[in-house]
Amino acid sequence: MRKIAVGQAGGPTAVFNASLVGLMESLYEDATLFTVTNGYQGLVQDDMEQVDGALYEWVRRHRRVPGACLGSGRYPFTPERMARAVANLQKRDIHTLVLIGGNGTMAGLQRMSEIARSMNYELQVVGIPKTVDNDLAGTDHAPGFASAARYAAMSVRDIAKDLEAMRNFEQVRIIETMGRNAGWLALASGYLKASELDGPHFIYLPEVKVSREQFLTNVRDCVRELGMATVVVSEGFAFSGSNVVMRGVVHNRAVLGGIAAEMGRLVRDELGLIARWENMGMNQRSCCAAVSAQDRLEAYEVGKKAAEYVRDGRSGVMVSIQRTEAIGYNYELIDKPVEEVAQAGERLLPHDFIENRTKFYSWLEPIIGEDMVKYPPMRRVKQA
Amino acid sequence: MRKIAVGQAGGPTAVFNASLVGLMESLYEDATLFTVTNGYQGLVQDDMEQVDGALYEWVRRHRRVPGACLGSGRYPFTPERMARAVANLQKRDIHTLVLIGGNGTMAGLQRMSEIARSMNYELQVVGIPKTVDNDLAGTDHAPGFASAARYAAMSVRDIAKDLEAMRNFEQVRIIETMGRNAGWLALASGYLKASELDGPHFIYLPEVKVSREQFLTNVRDCVRELGMATVVVSEGFAFSGSNVVMRGVVHNRAVLGGIAAEMGRLVRDELGLIARWENMGMNQRSCCAAVSAQDRLEAYEVGKKAAEYVRDGRSGVMVSIQRTEAIGYNYELIDKPVEEVAQAGERLLPHDFIENRTKFYSWLEPIIGEDMVKYPPMRRVKQA
To answer: What's this model's pTM, rounded to 2 decimal places?
Structure first.
């Protein structure tokens, strides 16, 4: 039987495991499967496990569980380590590697494929898309994003409504979302705004620089008019003339975070208002109560589709979701070369989504879920 | 027709408005209602509005909306201001005041009642219980808590599962919940733990002091064994020999916050581990996706019950939820003197709930909701 290794790489999502289950359910009967522990690390350290009935059933139980049940994580994947990874696969006679991941993972698959070729080892590589912040190229969107967007939209709707009631105690809330270079999640947070009076009143994106002065003017005017301001900011936003704010560096990877705190302190010190800042945190990528049913379905389907590519012997491809021209929401799953995906780099918000939010929210509607409730708009403007 | 003023006071919850709707639906036909804007502040500044059909329908639309649709907030309620509030009610010939709130609100109602008596003004006062952190005395629990507990339990379950997948990148997560003096919410966060291996691995409560050394030993040993540690801490927890950590003081009220950051820095500096800390934030009191259906029902019911007290002319009482001795979850709504509630002060976790979590979680089960899923336990211990 064909031997296939499957792994998960990068930050988890709420539907990461659904893709794994989709893949494994399609392949289990026809192949000998190996799970890779902790993504690249398991490949390099030969930490794999042959899937038996018990492990198979255990994985299947994770279809609705967030995280990455095989272990994922971040691990510096140097060319030397890639060569070791290929050698480890060779030792076990595994000729197929399927990884679920984002930009970095597709680039990694491409390079592993090249290294295997240079080692004269036949290695089929297939990628399954996964993202939280929708910065993966070569696909209309990737599983994980819509659930995170749903969480952001619901949270900000609720937090803004809470602030409305607290205007005599605090006036400004600043909420920081994920999004290093792409503001998809931050922009999605405005999806449930029922009227111009409702929060979020301002959204700041990595794609658009704004000066400190402009930000402060925005907040001051909004508080003057409504008695409050709810602000959403991507972790990757920076003020004009400034760099992004970082929390630290782990494994040579900048961990962003802190722009909301910087903005909150500015509001407090320059405008004399009471501001609260919070990070939307790990919940945005893992909250099960906010999962989009469509997102979970698509996550499962891209996993199944990858199994088809494996059986058909296609290599160097990622499953891509493409909307069709049909009326309503219709999509097909097609293969995209991982090389093309890797070369395209991070996918930023298109200009017309930034300029025309209605257009963006129409695009978002079918994937974020249909049972999204807008609240009654504020009845009147009542300053505290 | 009898004139009745209704208001909301203190921090909002996800079911605050359900109580308001329960009350108003019961009273609208028989009385002239006035809404009080922004809690005490509206009483003192005579910011009230007579309820007409449009306002009534607008309020009714908030049955499932978090926050406080009348405006709530915090406002220093001095004896002088209380006297002004009574005078304002007198001016409008309003002889009944119903407030939805927590400890402070029940004490405020009691004092307003005394001041009205000293002014020879007949004022009926009725309290409807509301809380996020369950520190309200005189009731088995109060609406708002179970939904917040549900949010805490689901979030921590999900965030811990996410950390499991990221052990080669970060090892420790510290999540800060609300709870100034009472650890109900923090303790509830462990409700969905499926096995000893799952997070949260440690919960720190305001009721129990722990030394820095003990905390660090706990985390170090857990990371050694499992490769990770998920820690939950109440904002009101303090290390032995230390005071609580504050973010600042607003209107003479200490705004707690920051203990998770202090703990995270300790872990980083003393143990050399990668730690992430987050505040569970405003979502724990406002997240609609995590509302407990039972909590929302009870919130509505205590509002209805208060209307009954109003009609029966009972004054100086709060609606209290009391479990009965019957098998299963049964409760009755009885009246408790607001004086007694106010004098009892903040309700801390009982000793036997702290010592015996199974007992606490059995108590919690019927109110947190029945569709709470535990995830499959970790299959094996695999260090990154």
So the answer is: 0.96
Cβ–Cβ contact B379 with A under 8 A = yes
Question: How does pLDDT run across B78-93, given as a tens digit for each residue?
Answer: 999 999 999 999 999 9
CA distance linking residue B22 with residue B19, whole number of Å: 5
Range A122-158 burial, b when 16+ CB lie within 10 A, else e: ebbbbbbbbbbbbbbbbbebbbbbbbbbbbbbbbbbb
Lowest mean pLDDT among A213-222, A243-252, A341-350, B189-198: A243-252
* Partner B contacted by A104 (CB < 8 A): no
Out of 2.40.50.140, 1.10.10.10, 3.40.50.460, 3.40.1710.10, the CATH code matching A151-285+351-368 is 3.40.50.460
Nearest CA in chain B to A165: B71
Three-class SS string for chain B?
Answer: CEEEEEEECECCECCHHHHHHHHHHHHCCCEEEEEECCCHHHHHCCCEEECCHHHHHHHHCCCCCCECCCCCECCCCCHHHHHHHHHHHHHCCCCEEEEEECHHHHHHHHHHHHHHHHCCCCCEEEEEECCCCCCCCCCCCCCCHHHHHHHHHHHHHHHHHHHHCCCCCCCEEEEEECCCCCCHHHHHCCCCCCCCCCCCCEEECCCCCECHHHHHHHHHHHHHHHCCEEEEEECCCCECCCCCCEEEEECCEEEECCHHHHHHHHHHHHHCCCEEEEECCCHHHHCHHHCCHHHHHHHHHHHHHHHHHHHHCCCCEEEEEEECCCCCCCEEEEEEEHHHHHHHCCCCCCHHHHHCHHHHHHHHHHHHCCCCCCCCCCCCCCCC
CA-nearest residue of chain A to B45?
Answer: A384
Architecture of the structural domain at B2-130+292-344: 3-Layer(aba) Sandwich (3.40)
B138 touches B344 (CB < 8 A): yes
Q: What percent of chain A has pLDDT over 90?
A: 90
Q: In what order do the strands lie in the sheet with B229-234?
A: B202-204, B229-234, B172-177, B275-279
Question: How distant is the Cα of A327 from the closest Cα of chain B, in angstroms?
Answer: 31
Residue with tokens 């001041």: B115
Angle at A244 between CA A152 and CA A100, to 5 degrees: 55
Asked whether B85 and B112 are in contact (CB, 8 A), the reply is: yes
**Hey, are the CB atoms on B161 and A72 less than 8 Å from each other?**
no
Which of B8, B167, B169 has the most A C-beta neighbours within 10 Å, making it the best mutation to test the interface with A?
B169
Whether the domain at A2-144+290-344 and the domain at A151-285+351-368 fall into the same CATH topology: yes
Q: Does domain A2-144+290-344 bear CATH number 3.60.10.10?
A: no
Of B67, B155, B166, the CB nearest to A283: B155
B380: confidence class by pLDDT, cuts 50, 70, 90 = low
Does residue A253 register a pLDDT over 80? no
Question: Cα separation of A352 and A360, whole Å?
Answer: 8
Specify the 3-state DSSP secondary structure of A257: coil
CATH level 3 topology of B153-281: Rossmann fold (3.40.50)
A88 φψ region: left (φ > 0), alpha (ψ -120 to 50), beta (else) = alpha
The domain ranges of chain B are 2-130+292-344, 153-281
**Number of Cα atoms under 13 Å in the Cβ half of residue A75:** 26
Could you tell me if B56 lies within 8 Å of chain A, comparing CB atoms?
Answer: no
Of A318, A321, A323, A322, give the one whose Cα is nearest residue A340: A318
Contact A2, A96 (CB under 8 A): yes
ipTM surpasses 0.85: yes
CA-nearest residue to B55 within chain A is A379
